[in-house]
Predict the 3D structure of the following.
Amino acid sequence: QVYPNPVNSELNVEIDLTVSEAIYSILDLNYRIIQTGKILQSQPINVRSLADGTYMLKIESLGYIRFIKQ
């Protein structure tokens, strides 16, 4: 689960991790990588620097989630 959606500054991600962290990528709708990092349990992803628009969040081995930055 990803919330809030649309998001302004911090994207919260609730996933069941068997480890304490996972690699993520934020992609635009042309699948260009815009941002990468590690998701730590209970730590939001800072998306303040993203331009307004629609993006895809890819979490290593879990797939894609669409979100909107406002």
Q: What stands out?
A: The mean pLDDT is 89. The longest strand covers residues 33-40. The two ends are 18 Å apart (CA to CA).
